[in-house]
Amino acid sequence: MPKRTMQGTVVSDKADKTVTVLVERRIMHPVYKKIITKSKKFAAHDAENHFKEGDFVRIRECAPISKSKVYEVIYDDAAKA
C-alpha cells in the first residue's frame, strides 16, 4: 500500500527534530457547492533540523516515531530550493 504524501508550510520549528506542518486542501461543500479551504497541522520528523518556519515541505507517512509523529519530511532537491 502506498504511503500518503502531502505538501504544506512549516508553521513551527521550535521542537528538536520536529516541525509542525500546516496542510491546506480545497474541497467543495456538499450542499452549497462552494469551494472551501480546510487545514490541519501535522507533526513531522525533521532529523537534521534543516527546515525553518515558512518553508514549503513535503511530508510522508511513516512508522510512529512518537505519540503524535507519524510523518517524516521528505528531503529532496525541490524541497531544499
Automatic annotation (TrEMBL):
Keywords: Ligase, Ribonucleoprotein, Ribosomal protein, RNA-binding, rRNA-binding. InterPro entries: NA-bd_OB-fold, Ribosomal_uS17, Ribosomal_uS17_bact/chlr. One of its GO terms (cellular component) is cytosolic small ribosomal subunit. The keyword Oxidoreductase does not apply. GO terms for biological process: translation. It comes from the Bacteria. The keyword RNA-binding applies. GO terms for molecular function: ligase activity; rRNA binding; structural constituent of ribosome. Pfam families: Ribosomal_S17. HAMAP family: Ribosomal_uS17_B. One of the primary rRNA binding proteins, it binds specifically to the 5'-end of 16S ribosomal RNA. Belongs to the universal ribosomal protein uS17 family. PANTHER family: 40S RIBOSOMAL PROTEIN S11 FAMILY MEMBER (PTHR10744), SMALL RIBOSOMAL SUBUNIT PROTEIN US17M (PTHR10744:SF1). Part of the 30S ribosomal subunit. This is Small ribosomal subunit protein uS17. It comes from Puniceispirillum marinum (strain IMCC1322).
